[in-house]
Amino acid sequence: MIFDYASRLFVVFVLSVCVSVMFLTGKEAVAEGDEVTKDTESWIFPVEGTITDSFGTRDGTHKGMDIGGEVGSPVYSVGKGTVSKSYLSKSYGHVVFIRHENGYETVYAHLESRLVDENQQVAQGAQLGTLGDTGRSTGAHLHFEIHKGEWTIDKENAIDPYRVFGNGEVGQLVFAKEKDPFRTVDVAGTPKVNLKKDVHVHTVHKGETLWGISQTYAVSIEEIMSENALKNTDIGINQILKIPAASQNDRYVVKKGDTLSSISLTQGVDIDELVQKNDLDLHAAIYPEQVLKVQ
User: Fold this and answer.
1) Which of 55, 64, 154, 157 has the most crowded CB, counting CB atoms within 10 A?
2) With contact defined as beta carbons under 8 Å apart, do 67 and 49 qualify?
3) What is the domain extent for residue 124?
């Protein structure tokens, strides 16, 4: 009887230890996540363009984020720091490393040109160089890495940039010198229409069409063709397109549950005019995130 009681006490003790270890491990994981967020809360995004690849792809060997853009676009330092390396690499091409005061190190690779030298002090938002296609690169883009600690050859300290800037996705337009580089959803949950006055750049990905790109940016095919002096709608992979800004007032992004009738009522436009402006059939289906002209 005494042995049976002692056995039960031992089992309870072991279970308590296991639960405590699980709890402490979970707390550590949460604390690390919070620490990264706190350490980098003031950082800004380094370049404007389109996400072409994310952290962890290529069987886990891709230790950064790729942002495709227009050659010559400015590339900025995400935070204050010191240039730890600035050189021409066979793999990275023209590359700049910045050691930050919080102990992190960031990498800016495949640059067309470098504008800073080793050991130079740089402020947040300082231009480090221009976006390019040097080194082992398949198209104009910035390869951007974040390391929680020093950069090493095996990149053991690399962390996902999404942990700093929030979750994005391949094909998404991003904005330079922003804490929130994506700016795709407003407070109501409706996809935003780009309101910037200048044009933006888009790198064509496999399977994309000019019509699909026009819907993404809420501009017409004709506007994109005119901006890029295109003679037809044929586009190729890695082609760089200039996308003119759209006006939010004359566009409507379709939400789940919308109908042509409901849109005509809420936007104050006659349904026949709505159909005509968008070259639709009155009974044609519409779908979420489709962009319609309403003025």
Assistant:
1) 64
2) yes
3) 49-174
